[in-house]
Design a protein that fits this description.
The protein is α/β, with parallel strands linked by helices. The chain has two domains: 15-330, 4-Layer Sandwich (Purple Acid Phosphatase, chain A, domain 2); 340-542, 5'-nucleotidase,  domain 2. The strands form nine sheets. The chain has a seven-stranded mixed sheet with strand order 1-10-11-13-14-16-15. The chain has a seven-stranded mixed sheet with strand order 9-7-6-5-2-17-18, with helices on one face. Strands 27-21-31-24-32 form a five-stranded mixed sheet. Helix 4 (132-140) links the parallel strand 6 (120-122) and strand 7. Helix 1 (62-73) runs parallel beside helix 3, helix 9 crosses helix 13 and helix 10 (394-400) crosses helix 13. The longest helix has 18 residues, at 319-336. The two termini are 36 Å apart.
C-alpha cells in the first residue's frame, strides 16, 4: 500500500504532506527503519523501449522503469520515488504529441510517469524547450508535484512548480528540496522563460536547508545538474557554470544528493558526508538507495546505506504504459515512414566533423535556404546512423536534428566570424598519426555538438596550432575576409541564447527569426526538393589528412 496526500504548492511556498498510514508504519516504539529511495533523471521522452529513428530496440524506457519501481516497492517498504528532470523532450513521440503543429497535447512521458507513481520531479532545462504554453500544459497533467526552489516567477507564469516538500511516510518525515539548472536563459530563447528568474542553486539550498532539516528526519536534495569536479580526484572539469553537485555536497544537512543533466551512470557513493548518485540517461537505469535509520535521542539518524544503479534493459515494459501511449506511438511510426522523396545516395550521419560532412552540409543547405543568409553555422547533432539510398522520410530529419531548436539570422563582422570559428575548433587537442593515417584527439569534456562548421565560406583548420590561431585562409566569395567586413549568418536558437559559450552570437544584431523548428524545416526541404543527394562541398578541410575516427555513438546534449 502506498498513499500520498498532496496539498497546493507555489514556488515560494512549502508543500507539506499530511501523515499517511501505510503497511510499513514506524511505530512509536520502533527505533530502526530502512527508507528506500528510487530515482530517475534525463529520461528525455523515452517512453517505450524502441528507437523510432533508428528502428531498433532501445536499452531503457519509462515503461521498464515502471516495472522496476513496482518490483522495488514489493513488500511495501517505506519508499519515495523521485525524478531529476529533462523528461518531456527528446523523442519524436514527445514532439508530435505535445509540440508539433496540431499536436493533441496529451504528454506521453507525463502519462507514463503517472503510472510509475512518482512522489515528485524536478524541472530540467529541456522542460523549457517547447515554451511555456507546452510546459504549463504538461505539468498540469502530472499527478505528482514538480519542484524548482531556485525558480522565481512560477506563480505569475501559472506554472505549478513548488520548492520543496515533506512526505510523511510510515511515520518518517522525508524532506525533498528540488533545484533546477539556472542556465536556461543561456540555452533557450527568451520567450521560453519570459517572466521567470533562475537563482544560484547552491545559495538557495544553503538558505533553505536549515529549516527543512528541522522539519524532516531525512533530507534529500534533487538537482538538475552534475558534478563540476572529478569525483575521485576533486580536480575541476571546467563545467562549474552549469554543474553544481560538488558544491552542494559540501553543504551541511544533506543526507542524499541525487543528480542529473550530465547523463552519467554514477552508482550511489559517498562524497564526504553526503551520499550522491546519478542514473545515466534515457531511462536506462533506476538508482536505488536504501538508507538505514535509527532513532537517537528522539531523532532519526542515517546509520548506514546501500545502493546501486539498476539497469532497466531486461525488464518487461509495464503494459499500462504501453496501452497509455499506443495510439500516439502508431501515429509517430506512420509519420516517420511518410514518403517525402528520394535519397539518391547513402548517407552516414556522424557525431563529429572529421572533415566536411554531407550530413552537416544538408543542415547548412536547409538553414541557408530557409533564412536567406550569406553564411550558415551548424554542428553535427545526432549519433551515428546509416541511411541507404532509397525513400526519403522524416526519419532522416530527426536523425540529423533531434533537438527542437529554431533558426535566427545574425550579423557578424569579419573579426567576429573568425572568433566564432576559432571557438568552434578549440576542442581538438592534438593529432595522433600511425601507418594507417592520422586521427584527431579531442577534449572529451566538450560535447560533440560544440564543433560547428561554416558554410558559404572556405577555410582551413590547423588542429596542431595554438588555440585561437587555427583558422587559416578564411574567404567568402573567393576574397579573404577582412576584420571590418559584415556578413549575415544563420545560427540556431541554442547558439543565439548563448549555448556553447560562443563569442558574439548572443549579442550580435538580429536580422531575422524563423520560429519553425529545424526538424520541420528539414522535412519541408525534403518534400520541396523531392530528390536529395547528400554530398560535402569540401569548402573547408583540416591541414592534415585524417582517417575516420568517429565513435559509433555520441552522447546526447544535456
Amino acid at each position: 500500500m502506498k498513499n500520498v496526500v498532496r496539498g497546493p504548492w507555489s514556488v515560494v511556498g512549502v508543500l507539506c504532506l499530511a501523515a499517511v498510514a501505510t503497511a510499513s508504519w514506524v511505530g512509536a516504539g520502533q527505533d530502526r527503519v530502512t527508507l528506500r529511495v528510487l530515482f530517475t533523471s534525463d529520461m528525455h521522452g523515452h517512453v517505450l523501449p524502441y528507437d523510432d529513428v533508428r528502428e531498433r530496440p532501445a536499452r531503457g524506457s519509462i515503461a521498464q522503469v515502471a516495472t522496476v519501481v513496482a518490483a522495488e516497492r514489493a513488500g511495501d517498504p517505506v519508499s519515495v520515488v523521485l525524478d531529476g528532470g529533462d523528461e518531456i523532450e527528446g523523442t519524436p513521440l514527445e514532439y508530435y504529441a505535445i509540440a508539433a503543429p496540431g499536436a493533441p497535447g496529451v504528454d506521453p512521458a507525463v502519462a507514463a510517469m503517472n503510472v510509475v507513481g512518482y512522489d515528485a520531479a524536478v524541472l530540467g532545462n529541456h522542460e523549457f524547450n517547447f515554451g511555456l504554453d507546452v510546459l504549463r500544459r504538461s505539468l498540469g497533467q502530472a499527478r505528482f508535484p514538480w519542484l524548482g526552489a531556485n525558480l522565481g516567477g512560477a506563480a505569475p507564469a501559472r506554472l505549478p512548480v513548488g520548492s520543496e516538500l515533506v512526505v510523511e511516510r510510515g511515520g518518517l518525515r522525508i524532506g525533498v528540496l528540488g533545484l533546477t539548472n539556472p542556465n536556461v536563459p543561456h540555452w533557450d530563447p527568451a520567450e521560453h522563460w519570459e517572466g521567470l528568474t533562475f537563482s544560484d542553486p547552491v545559495a538557495v539550498a544553503a538558505a533553505r536547508l536549515p529549516e527543512l532539516r528541522r522539519r524532516a528526519d531525512v533530507v534529500i536534495v534533487v538537482v538538475h545538474g552534475g558534478f563540476e569536479r572529478d569525483l575521485d580526484t576533486g580536480a575541476p572539469n571546467g563545467t562549474e557554470e552549469e554543474n553544481f553537485a560538488w558544491r552542494l555536497a559540501q553543504l551541511p544537512g544533506i543526507d542524499l544528493l541525487l543528480t542529473g543533466h550530465t547523463h552519467r551512470d554514477i552508482p550511489p557513493r559517498a562524497l564526504g558526508r553526503t551520499i550522491v548518485a546519478q542514473p545515466g540517461r534515457w531511462a536506462e537505469f533506476v538508482t536505488r538507495v536504501d538508507l538505514d535509520l535509527a532513532r537517537v535521542d528522539g531523532s532519526w539518524k542515517v546509520t548506514g546505506w546501500r545502493g546501486e544503479n539498476i539497469p532497466t534493459a531486461s525488464a518487461a515494459p509495464d503494459p499500462r504504459v504501453v496501452a497509455a501511449v499506443s495510439a500516439e506511438e502508431a501515429k509517430v511510426k506512420a509519420e516517420l515512414a511518410r514518403p517525402l522523396g528520394e535519397l539518391t545516395a547513402p548517407l552516414v550521419v556522424r557525431p563529429l566533423p572529421l572533415g566536411d560532412d554531407p550530413g552537416v552540409d544538408l543542415i547548412h543547405a536547409v538553414q541557408l535556404e530557409a533564412s536567406g543568409a550569406e553564411l550558415s553555422l551548424a554542428a553535427p547533432l545526432g549519433g551515428r546512423t546509416e541511411f541507404p539510398a532509397g525513400p526519403l522520410t522524416p526519419r532522416l530529419a530527426f536523425a540529423l536534428y533531434p533537438y527542437p531548436n529554431t533558426l535566427l539570422v545574425v550579423r557578424l563582422t569579419g573579426a567576429e566570424l573568425e572568433d566564432v570559428l576559432e571557438h568552434a575548433v578549440r576542442g581538438w587537442t592534438g593529432v595522433g598519426c600511425s601507418g594507417e593515417g592520422c586521427t584527431l584527439e579531442r577534449d572529451r569534456h566538450l560535447p560533440s555538438y560544440n564543433y560547428d562548421t561554416l558554410a558559404g565560406a572556405t577555410y582551413l583548420v590547423d588542429p596542431s596550432a595554438p588555440v585561437g590561431r587555427r583558422i587559416l585562409g578564411l574567404r567568402v566569395a573567393g576574397r579573404l575576409v577582412r576584420p571590418d567586413d559584415t556578413f549575415t549568418v544563420a545560427i540556431n536558437s541554442y547558439r543565439a541564447a548563448g549555448g556553447g559559450d560562443f563569442p558574439h552570437l548572443a549579442t550580435a544584431p538580429r536580422v531575422k527569426e524563423i520560429r519553425e523548428p529545424m526538424v520541420s524545416l528539414l522535412v519541408d526541404y525534403f518534400a520541396r526538393h523531392g530528390k536529395v543527394t547528400p554530398a560535402a562541398d569540401e569548402n573547408w578541410a583540416f591541414t592534415v589528412p585524417l582517417r575516420d575516427g568517429t565513435p559509433r555513438s555520441a552522447a546526447a546534449r544535456p
